[in-house]
User: Which sequence fits this backbone?
């Protein structure tokens, strides 16, 4: 094989494999991102019905109920509430009145069935998603009051 | 007084770094050997000053000097002494100082161990390292001095995050930073080569041991981090594809590519430009990792925007480093030349494919890590990229890579024959195929991915053994060098790692159950019985301790005592798992929370895991690092150094 042909073969092969890799990588990225919704958005029906997504907010005080290994609680952004169910062991920092982020799907009865509950870092840390949800809800609250 | 001394040492170090970053480089350019000679003494002076600063900070921690803000934020008088020392790097400022200590230690090592190298090359390498030091010292002094005073002094400190109060944390960051920062030496060698135009086999031979040493530390650091997450976070997971983990994994991937590409440059004089580019890339990813972890962008893009000084500084630094080195590359690389020719089927081509796969892997991790940040910064919403993305991308990339590990060492340089390769490796391939089909049945059930994982791991191991046998049979070339054994041991480490990952992913069983005293749960053929729950008080925490009995086939093996701790200084609870470690499996038990308050049964939710072969993951990492260590001690690197030093 001539060296020019060899070089062309290497370049074409390299580009082809990079193209295939890019195709798979972007495909995987597209199907594996979890979008984030605030309780207000979920109540308004903006969240997808057929795929997993994340919600964030505060664990509403007095709503945590244990039923064997399943735990029911309410996540709120201070404007709207979403009931959540989770089966398993919650992370150490899960607490009433503290920030939480959950990933899962919306069940037919309107309950958010979480496959994963995140409450990480130290006790004063607020997950950014949870903070954003509360900030947004309070912003709309204020504008509502102004218009009234 | 001591903290001020530390600060003063840092300021002096900055001045020395400025000297180190300018004079030797100018001297090398002009051919002025007295200016070049300044490099060595400046490197040593810089190390002394930074070690002094680090010592001062450690002293402040050990003596509980809460008039220092950083100490008050990260330590507490109840904290055991060993964790007070570890607390030095428990926060932002101190970990940067540790970074700096590592960088100056590498610089010192270059100045001491490079007597066989041409004076101009040493001067350039030290000069580049001096410039990097200058940037980091400036960063520490301008935005993150650990010596800031808190007046009046706090009565007591806020304490170290309980998660970090663990022996793993005492050694994990220093290892990781040694690795991260070590790539700065590979980078400095690459820049020195571009500046001088000397980029040949000799250059690659000088650069290789430094790169491999950095890689050894990074391998150990990443492995330790994963082990720490496994036993300290109480979840039983060993890798989360968390951005912080990815930050250390990306330089590892490119560093691995760099090691292999340097081999080609040394042996065949090829891939020169590519090697230089990889060295720049690996160091840039180390810097990017530092930026991601240290600027606060990960917590929230908005947190970064409200206090942007640190982030902006690192980002600017990153831009200057990448920009100027790429500019230099574009300017000088055409002069470097392409090097030896090789056939389409040759060891060079196989190593090139290895490099492409590793670079694509690093790129896809980078994409998954930065994508949520970019989307957030553009205000397009909030998303998270989870482990499924990384797993979907990684498996197809690692399959061909593992196949190549088997082929590479047996293939000839320059031109290899496919028929010859196939003849030599057909037994290995047969063994691997048989193992992939049969072994999973023996272990439980056959699933495609488990079969594939076992097949590839056994393929790597069998091909490695084949190559060793062939080499020993044809001993015409004399005894194989240490580098040969090192490479093969590291590849065996990869096989062990793959077995660990495959089997733990395929056969692990996890049970989250409610257990009252006397209850028994079965997992993976073992039975775990909860005997009772007691209380215990530690030096700076109180704990609830579970007493569980692990038994198999009615025979009591041992008792397991997982804890739920509450630290006095913060209300933060901590789960301490209890693990029965074995060669073929771990049994992992951790406490959830009390769930029997209503019925008064004293029941707790308990997490019980059976993890087959999980320790092979870290065993594989250790073997890889050990392989690297053996390769570094190869005579051809050692002789040169010794010959002149004696």
Assistant:
């Amino acid at each position: 094989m001539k060296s020019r042909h060899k070089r062309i073969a290497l370049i074409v092969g390299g580009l082809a494999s990079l193209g295939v890799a890019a195709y798979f990588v972007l495909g995987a990225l597209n199907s594996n991102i979890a979008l984030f919704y605030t309780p207000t958005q979920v109540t308004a029906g903006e969240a997808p019905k057929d795929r997993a997504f994340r919600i964030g907010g505060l664990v509403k005080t007095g709503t945590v109920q244990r039923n064997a290994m399943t735990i029911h609680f309410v996540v709120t952004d201070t404007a709207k509430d979403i009931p959540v169910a989770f089966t398993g062991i919650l992370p150490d920092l899960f607490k009433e009145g503290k920030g939480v982020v959950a990933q899962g799907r919306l069940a037919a009865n309107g309950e958010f069935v979480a496959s994963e509950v995140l409450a990480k870092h130290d006790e004063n840390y607020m997950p950014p998603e949870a903070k954003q949800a509360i900030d947004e809800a309070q912003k709309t609250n204020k504008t509502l009051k102004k218009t009234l | 007084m001591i903290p001020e001394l530390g600060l003063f040492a840092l300021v002096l170090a900055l001045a020395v770094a400025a000297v180190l970053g300018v004079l030797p480089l100018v001297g090398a350019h002009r051919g002025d050997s007295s200016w070049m000679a300044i490099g060595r003494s400046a490197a040593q002076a810089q190390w002394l000053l930074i070690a002094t600063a680090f010592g001062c900070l450690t002293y402040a921690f050990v003596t509980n000097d809460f008039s220092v803000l950083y100490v008050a934020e990260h330590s507490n008088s109840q904290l055991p002494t060993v964790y007070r020392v570890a607390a030095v790097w428990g926060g932002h400022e101190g970990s940067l100082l540790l970074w700096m200590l590592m960088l100056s230690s590498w610089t010192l090592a270059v100045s001491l161990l490079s007597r066989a190298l041409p004076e101009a090359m040493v001067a350039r390498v030290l000069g580049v390292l001096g410039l990097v030091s200058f940037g980091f010292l400036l960063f520490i002094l301008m935005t993150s001095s650990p010596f800031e005073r808190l007046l009046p002094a706090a009565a007591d400190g806020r304490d170290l995050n309980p998660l970090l109060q663990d022996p793993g944390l005492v050694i994990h960051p220093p290892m990781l930073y040694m690795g991260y920062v070590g790539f700065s030496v590979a980078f400095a060698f690459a820049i020195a080569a571009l500046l001088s135009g000397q980029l040949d086999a000799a250059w690659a031979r000088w650069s290789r041991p430094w790169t491999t040493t950095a890689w050894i530390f990074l391998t150990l650091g990443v492995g330790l981090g994963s082990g720490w997450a496994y036993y300290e976070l109480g979840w039983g997971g060993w890798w989360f594809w968390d951005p912080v983990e990815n930050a250390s994994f990306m330089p590892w991937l490119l560093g691995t590519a760099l090691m292999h590409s340097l081999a080609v440059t040394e042996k065949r004089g090829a891939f020169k430009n590519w090697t230089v580019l990889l060295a720049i890339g690996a160091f840039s990813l180390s810097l990017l990792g530092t930026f991601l972890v240290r600027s606060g962008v990960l917590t929230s893009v908005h947190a970064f925007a409200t206090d942007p000084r640190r982030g902006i500084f690192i980002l600017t630094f990153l831009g200057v480093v990448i920009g100027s080195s790429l500019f230099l590359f574009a300017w000088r690389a055409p002069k470097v030349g392409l090097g030896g020719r090789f056939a389409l089927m040759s060891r060079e081509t196989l190593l090139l494919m290895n490099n492409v796969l590793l670079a694509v892997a690093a790129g896809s991790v980078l994409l998954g890590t930065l994508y949520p940040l970019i989307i957030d910064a553009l205000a397009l919403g909030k998303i998270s990229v989870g482990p499924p993305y990384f797993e979907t991308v990684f498996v197809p990339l690692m399959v061909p890579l593992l196949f190549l590990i088997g082929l590479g060492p047996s293939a000839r340089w320059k031109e290899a024959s496919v028929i010859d390769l196939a003849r030599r490796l057909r037994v290995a391939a047969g063994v691997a195929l048989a193992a992939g089909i049969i072994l999973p049945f023996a272990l439980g059930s056959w699933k495609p991915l488990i079969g594939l994982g076992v097949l590839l791991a056994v393929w790597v191991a069998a091909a490695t053994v084949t190559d060793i046998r062939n080499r020993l049979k044809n001993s015409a070339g004399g005894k194989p060098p240490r580098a040969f054994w090192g490479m093969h041991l590291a590849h065996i480490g990869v096989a062990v790692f793959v077995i660990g990952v495959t089997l733990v992913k395929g056969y692990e069983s996890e049970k989250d159950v409610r257990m009252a005293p006397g209850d028994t749960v079965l997992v993976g053929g073992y039975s775990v019985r909860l005997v009772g729950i007691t209380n215990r008080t530690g030096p700076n925490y109180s704990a609830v301790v579970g007493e569980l009995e692990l038994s198999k086939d009615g025979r009591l093996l041992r008792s397991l005592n997982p804890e739920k701790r509450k630290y006095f200084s913060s209300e933060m609870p901590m789960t301490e798992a209890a693990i029965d470690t074995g060669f073929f499996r771990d049994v992992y038990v951790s406490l959830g929370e009390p769930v029997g308050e209503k019925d008064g049964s004293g029941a707790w939710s308990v997490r019980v895991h059976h993890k087959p072969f999980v320790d092979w993951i870290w065993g594989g990492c250790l073997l890889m690092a050990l392989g690297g260590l053996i390769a570094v001690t190869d005579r051809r690197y050692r002789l040169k150094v010794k010959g002149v030093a004696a």
User: Anything to note?
Assistant: The first strand of chain A starts at residue 33 and ends at 37. Chain A is about 35% helix and 30% strand.
